[in-house]
Amino acid sequence: MRPGTTGGRSTALRYALLLVVPAALVGVGLGWALAAPDPVQAEAPVRALADGLGATVLGLAVLPRLHDRLRPAWRLLAVLGGLWSLAEFVLLATEAAEVVGVSVLGLRAADFGDYLAHVSGGQIGIAVLIGTVAVAGYSTLAYRRRERGTTDLVLVFAAVTLVLRPITGHMSQQTLGSVLAAVHALAAAAWFGMLVALALVVRTRGEWAVILPRYSGWALPAIAAVTVTGICNGLVRIGDLAALVDTGYGRILLAKTIMVVALLGLGWWWRRSWVPVASDHRMSAESSLRRALLEVAVMAVVFGLAATLSVTA
């Protein structure tokens, strides 16, 4: 084998992580198709991208807790935090345009200002934007002064920012609805974001051998939390099982549930066929990365469905 071949393949595979973007958009497109003829707001694609970026930031902030040798990826956190801020700003502008009844390009500054000042969605959006800017700004400073940086602050800002919209949405009107929504959002973000972070940061067979089993231990309660809270939230929202077929919201929820069950099956299979082999140093880093990419792509479709679900009437 020529020198550098394995490293080159791993680098190419990491670039393949960009496929999570079209995978998330596939999920959005599927959600739109299932929702018809019920109305769906136009910001679903941007919501999916923003949620995915936020989850990845959360995962990168958690990752050093899995292994003492893993150093915070400050450059990645700064870049992804900046992209998250941009996505949230575009999302905020898209929501304002929806309320005003114009296209994003036709939104006037005065109307945007009124939305931010007088509409609850705009005020929540400002808080979300402040959180993402704080993540990006702190990560940039920490990259320049690494000896003083701690991912704990990033973790707190990212977690709070990720739950701001869910805890103030339709579930907030139900008993313990905000708690269920917050747990669901954080568990899903940790499950997805930590695996993306692993794919971005872990380089060697030895690192996968140590870190993958630890991620698997974290993922199990996260999956359980996503499943339980998702079922509770869904049953409260749809009211009866017939709505799973009769309404756009119900059809998207059913598709999302099927995808999550598929992910549960894949996770079960990975715990039998991937985690033990990798932990025994019997699997190359490249093979582990391929498996992580497969699961991340499927998760991205679910994120797209979830984003469409959150803006479906």
From TrEMBL:
Q: Which Pfam families match?
A: CopD
How this chain sits in the membrane, per its record, is:
Multi-pass membrane protein
Offer one example of a GO biological process linked to this entry: copper ion transport
Extract the InterPro entries matched here. CopC/D, Cu-R_CopD_dom
Q: Which UniProt keywords apply?
A: Cell membrane, Membrane, Transmembrane, Transmembrane helix
Every copy of the Copper resistance protein D domain together lies at 211-309
Protein's UniProt name: CopD family protein
- Membrane-spanning residues: 12-34, 46-64, 76-95, 115-138, 150-167, 179-203, 215-236, 248-271, 292-311
Report if keyword Transmembrane is assigned.
yes
Keyword Transmembrane helix annotated: yes
What does UniProt give as GO cellular component? plasma membrane
Where is this gene product found?
Answer: Cell membrane
